[in-house]
Amino acid sequence: MPSPADNIYLPKLAVLDRVVDEITDVRTFFWHFEDAAEQAAFRRFMPGQFAQVSLFGVGEFPASLPPSPTEEETFFTIRTVGSCSAALHALQPGARFGVRGPYGNGFPMDAYAGRNLVFVAGGIGLIPLRSCIIYALAHREKFGRIQIFYGSKTPQELMYRPDLKEWEKAGGIECHLTVDRGDDGWTGHTGVVGSLFQKEGVNLPVENTTAFVCGPPIMFRFVIMDLKKLGFEDRNIVSTLERYMKCGVGKCGHCCIGVSYVCVDGPVFTFEQIRKLGEEI
Ligand SMILES: Cc1cc2nc3c(=O)[nH]c(=O)nc-3n(C[C@H](O)[C@H](O)[C@H](O)COP(=O)(O)OP(=O)(O)OC[C@H]3O[C@@H](n4cnc5c(N)ncnc54)[C@H](O)[C@@H]3O)c2cc1C
Ligand code: FES
């Protein structure tokens, strides 16, 4: 029997510490568990896993874990779309809510040791990938080249600004940003995220490389086409699938695609698996 702190099926009380505005309708919520043993147990999550967030009297929803387990703080980055996310957005520091997890398979980061890592994100698709990027940088010596390609519609919609600034300046990592439409203050690249692959000096490696792709469906579709043209095999492209979830632990069947439960078998899948599941892209 796991101790109550280690029991991932038990919802636990979390306290909201502070809130940071990211972009319109999207905020990052820093929180900690009231119980230190629960906090320590939770921080053993893997990049790509998720948690179920409870807003008392409102409901529960799944949220990715954008921090890396190598970081001290725990937080969610949430776009307000419906009743639960709106209730979270309405909380003030000091308020309590419930968290259970971590759930799902996560990215098998150890299996990528010795490989080049290419991260391709669009819009809020950077939320689940942030964890892998920070994790890979914390274990820099384990990986080959690390490249980040991130795009949003406008400069105002770029997420995690402090991280982006750091990644653009840091050694040992290549960070390329783009926006669909620039403004007077934008001096960077303009175009869809896949257009960055052709930018002078980028030279995307294909051999011994894993590409992580997360973003809206249209971006995903075009980036996959670009990567395939460059020679990427389906098994070397990984992503996270979003499905409507209720229990998050393989009981209710809400998230099923064919024989797979996205909450348990995923949310991380290779593109080879996504195609076998019959997902339309
Ligand atoms: C594994 C996983 C990780 C996630 N991580 C994050 C995250 O880090 N940040 C974040 O902002 N959101 C994330 N989401 C999405 C989030 O869980 C949903 O937006 C959730 O429905 C919000 O709850 P709500 O009560 O506010 O909205 P709801 O009232 O549940 O939904 C509002 C509207 O969105 C639709 N909807 C809800 N979920 C989905 C879905 N998965 N696909 C298509 N339409 C949907 C509903 O039908 C409804 O029309 C994640 C989802 C999954 C499955
Ligand atoms: S969400 Fe209930 S089975 Fe996956």
Overview features:
binds FE2/S2 (inorganic) cluster; 7 helices; 281 residues; 6-stranded antiparallel β-sheet; alpha/beta; globular; 7-stranded mixed β-sheet; Elongation Factor Tu (Ef-tu), domain 3; Rossmann fold; binds flavin-adenine dinucleotide; 15 strands; 2 domains
Protein model, in words:
By secondary structure, this protein is an alpha/beta fold. The chain contains 7 helices and 15 strands. Strands 10-9-8-7-11-12-15 form a 7-stranded mixed β-sheet, sandwiched between helices. The chain has a 6-stranded antiparallel β-sheet with strand order 4-3-6-1-2-5. Strands 13-14 form a two-stranded antiparallel sheet. A hairpin with a 3-residue loop joins β3 and β4. Residues 50, 59, 61-64, 76-79, 81-85, 127, 242-245, 267 line the site of flavin-adenine dinucleotide (FAD).
Give a summary of the structure in a few sentences:
The protein has 281 residues and is α/β, with parallel strands linked by helices. The chain has helices at 36-42, 83-89, 126-138, 161-169, 217-230, 262-265, 271-276, and strands spanning 12-23, 26-33, 50-55, 59-64, 74-79, 96-103, 116-122, 146-152, 174-179, 189-190, 209-214, 237-240, 256-257, 260-261, 268-270. The model has no long low-confidence stretch (mean pLDDT 95).
